[in-house]
Structures
1.
Amino acid sequence: MTRIQRLRLMRTTSALQFESAFLPTQVRHALVLAASTFLALALAPLGLVLFDLRDHDGQRIVELVLLAVTAIIVAAQAILQRDSAAHPTRRAIGITSAIAVLGMLSVLHAPVMRAAALEAGLLLALALFAVGIGLAAAHLGIERMLAIPVAASLLFVFAVAVRYAAALSAQTPLLREHLLPAYSNYRFFNHVQAVTIPLILAAATVGTIRMGLRRWAMFALVLEFCLLHFTGGRATMAALGIAAIAVAAVFRREALRWVVRLGLAAALGAALYLLLFNAIPLLLGLPRDFFATDVVERSGTGVGSQREYLWSLAWQYIRESPLLGIGPMHYAHRVNAEAAHPHNVYLQLAAEWGVPFAVLVIALAAVGWMRLLRAASASVGAGDRAIGVSLVAAGVAIAVDGMFSGNFVMPMSQLWIAFAIGLSIAYVRSAAPALPAAGALAQPAARWGPVALCALSQIAIWQGVWPEILDVNAHVDRVRAEIVHNVVDNPRIWSHGWFE
């Protein structure tokens, strides 16, 4: 053995010893992303009260920072090739390529390309965040990742409890807009609940999760339903109800425990709501902000004239430009008196990106959901099946809520949706691990493709928010003064999301 060979052997041995003394690189990356996700979804929103920012704008900045961290981690994983993150088939590559081409054409066709590129970059970054969560869950375990929504829920409820106690002490009305911190509109909190409630229920049901976490999860679930009854989120209630019916119809006896626990939590949450927000205010002589009959009365009027007006505008834009749409984010470029998005993700995709793009995206989502459904149906262990049922239910709830709300627009619900998709990716991979399929990406493309996508997403995002992000309040005030004079905020990228 030559001297050079001996030196190389010594270096290799030293490197292996160094790496074995610490966690593997991919596990460290997973821990960093999981910790960053916890900070962004659980702690950062509650800390926004310390800053002079509107809640929506603060959440958006938190989202952009988390997506930037994710881009770095996903790119590093790809360069190091420490993980076989994905092996797409020719069919998946073809559909994704068609979506990418149509998306680029829509961006180029848009009147304000800067805003269109920002929207495209944001959606791409969210997709990469879902991939990153999938990688993290694959290394850390889905059960451990489920602790994030449980902890986020408990921290949020604690903040609500502090405000509740302060309101009772000061003898002030228990108003929904005052009790729920971190959200400009309590409806945005309902969007998050449509995702987190099924995930928390998974943590409360899976037998392999430690008993302590399962009990905390059930406690959080009851409190979530208490707040859902208090806020009266009809779309969220409908989404969860339809999700329960769907999993009961598909999984039958296997879903019985899941459905029973959901119903029990909803009933206990209703009882707690009646105690905290009806009985106690009555005893103290405080006015009540919400009655259970309000949901029934509002539902009797249909989806609402404002929502119907926004939908009619979306249909008008679809007829105007059916192939490429009026431009990504450009619903917020056409000023109206109500909102900067149509409160329907399907109409939004078709109106802004074009009908072909919307059809392909919906088809891709449906195919992914069916793969998740098959994986959950084929699972053997009770714990794996409970997680699968919860993820399937979350997918249904997200899809139903998207028909009536802006859950794909608001920053926190965007992140939670991507989080659930990431867990679903990890679940499908763990249920059916496979070798690279014929036609999978070649090694250079598998390495540098994700790096290019990460860089592209960040360039598109930051060119669209700079320099407004340096002083968002001034930007929002200027938009209100010069573009749209609506007194109420109309959120899109920022809290008053219109652009010229």
Note: The chain has a mean pLDDT of 87.
2.
Amino acid sequence: MIVTTPQEISLADVRKSINFCRQVNMKILGLVENMSGLKCPHCGEMIDIFKTQGGVLTAKKEGLNLLGSLPFEPEVVSKGDTGNMSLLDDNKLLITQEFNKIVDKIVELTETGSEPVPEAKNELLDRKKGSADSKILVVPVSGGKLSAHFGHCEQFAFIETQNGEIIETEMHNPPGHEPGVLPRWLYDQGADVIIVGGMGDMAQQLLREKGIEVIIGAPMDSPESLANQYLSNNLVAGANVCDH
């Protein structure tokens, strides 16, 4: 079971945890979103302290069971400091209600022997396996255009192509920028080709070792424009803008 909070800084680490579990064939029972809003003690309105539905959207995108969401509860702090968690016996509290729903969901999944992680964990990878004529092109993007350096981009555009035509483009947030993480992540996501402006020698080596074609020195165009240039064999590569 993986627990996250709704904000992106937490979700980025959670995505790395999910990828790790899959790499070592560890089944994931599901995702729990903690700190999911605060119920105002005066009016009862829910206040979204962090952004909303971060855990919900991540579970959907990763093909995981969403086990439930736990709100902030001030009593957790006061009771926890004294080692007393009797609040979980108080069904009037929202956190207790949601906690019990999560327990029921876990019991249901474990008793019925349901598959914790659906088979279609990665739609891009599944589509890639469906046809020898399909390719996943990846472009690092900042401000809607190719980012000068793939390791410091805002997002990655994953462009699914088949028979020389663009089928679909999906934008993915990258994992944390650490040595060796991006090449492994791109491989796990099913990338066939990566089109960049600049890239370090080590990243190039890691990607090519995984069978991913690397095109360096591409112009600062939109992802779709670069993909079409590649598919029509008109993509002109220039100098590597990365100096390490």
Note: The CA atoms of residues 133 and 163 lie 6 Å apart.
